[in-house]
């Protein structure tokens, strides 16, 4: 789609998993918390697989980046 754009922080690739995008976020509201505590607000775990919560503000940004890139 010619009118869509994306600027991920990195593009990764490996033989076992294929291609992917990296998006780094550093929100100030969590800067004084431990990483273990922060992950609960961003990710969900289903059968040993972590994924971004579908109702999170960054979810659609990351989905678009994966599609465009």
Verbal overview:
One of its GO terms (biological process) is DNA repair. This is YqaJ viral recombinase domain-containing protein. Residues 2-68 form the YqaJ viral recombinase domain. It comes from Amphimedon queenslandica (Sponge). Helices cover 26% and strands 26% of the residues. The chain is α+β, with helices and mostly antiparallel strands. The protein has one domain. The strands form two sheets. A two-stranded antiparallel ribbon has the order 1-2. Strands 3-4 form a two-stranded antiparallel sheet. The N and C termini lie close together (11 Å). The relative contact order is 0.23.
Largest sheet: 2 strands, antiparallel
The CA-CA distance between the termini, in Å, is: 11 Å
- Structural class based on helices, strands and sheet pairing: alpha+beta
Mean pLDDT rating: 82
Number of helical segments with 4 or more residues: 2
Count of DSSP strands:
4
Q: Based on the structure, what is the oligomeric state of the protein chains?
A: single chain
Estimated share of beta-strand residues: 25-35%
Query: Going across the major beta sheet, what is the strand order?
Result: 1-2
| Shape descriptor | globular
Radius of gyration (CA) equals 14 Å
Helix content: 25-40%
Order of helices and strands: EEHEEH
Low-confidence stretches: none
Query: How many separate structural domains?
Result: 1
């Amino acid at each position: 789609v010619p009118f869509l754009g994306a600027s991920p922080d990195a593009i990764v690739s490996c033989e076992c998993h294929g291609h992917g995008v990296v998006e780094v976020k550093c929100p100030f509201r969590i800067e004084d918390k431990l990483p273990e505590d922060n992950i609960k607000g961003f990710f969900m775990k289903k059968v040993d697989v972590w994924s971004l919560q579908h109702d999170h503000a960054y979810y659609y940004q990351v989905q678009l980046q994966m599609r465009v890139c």
